[in-house]
């Protein structure tokens, strides 16, 4: 039974997926609003809004296009952490995007196919004819196997992610594996159960297909409810982050630099932003942290300062002269 309400198609066969997708969107909106309520995030969005108003529209458009290509489509900011890590993130991200995009479109009836003749199909998007293709064409193969291809891409990325996390050091593994593995296991269950559905009806005449369909629906529903409150939430809101790059546009904000080593801290944040943000958040700095100079130090120099103070307190003096000063770009 299918009930059409505007562009929505309420189908009892996929009602579980539809309800879960509505809750998924609601959860993401709730998390996004909660994210915006944090004082640092409000400051970033306020600066982006001012940038849109003060910079020429061509500069804003160029920044957005560059951000969409580099940050969203290719995620080049991860390359600096290693090519393998970038490729793993890239395959997982696009595997999820492809699978979710096709599944949502099919579940809500936004995308459909009709038979023109025995050898020709017509694709529809929102009930509008999109294109016509032969059943034995490459377009037909991609259209009818988009979910499987996206799932294989996602599965490959998950295998790489598991291998990388198993090779972590003991301390890093203890700190990070709980959250990482819970998300990876859920994605793996969704991916494998979905691929087994294809294997069942293509190679085993539908043996166990009904049981696999129920298992897959359960894992998908759990996954959609889990994503807004897990590490995977950043994938759902990644399109919104490109707007923040406008605040980092050249010539709009003078980059803040570490007062000790000269390393660039941020093209957006400055100590003047941090002080009122901490006050709004109700954070009171005490002891050494109350020194205004601490807010102008990069993490490496801040650790150096803390270590110097600790050693000075136990009767040892550590001189900080020109040769000890960290050069821009050097780590701790």
What is the second-level CATH architecture of the largest domain? Up-down Bundle
Major beta sheet, specifics?
Answer: 3 strands, antiparallel
Spatial strand arrangement across the major sheet: 3-4-5
Radius of gyration: 26 Å
Here the CATH topology of the largest domain equals: Fumarate Reductase Cytochrome B subunit
Quick structural overview:
The chain is mainly alpha-helical and 332 residues long. The chain folds into 2 domains: 2-244, Fumarate Reductase Cytochrome B subunit (Up-down Bundle); 255-324, no CATH class.
Structural summary, described in words:
With 332 residues, the chain is mainly alpha-helical. The chain folds into two domains: 2-244, Fumarate Reductase Cytochrome B subunit (Up-down Bundle); 255-324, no CATH class. Helices cover 58% and strands 10% of the residues. It contains twelve helices and seven strands. It has helices spanning 15-37, 39-54, 57-73, 83-107, 138-144, 146-166, 170-203, 209-226, 233-236, 238-241, 271-280, 299-313; strands spanning 2-5, 8-11, 111-117, 120-125, 128-134, 256-257, 264-266. The chain has a three-stranded antiparallel β-sheet with strand order 3-4-5. Strands 1-2 form a two-stranded antiparallel ribbon. The longest helix has 34 residues, at 170-203. The N and C termini lie far apart (64 Å).
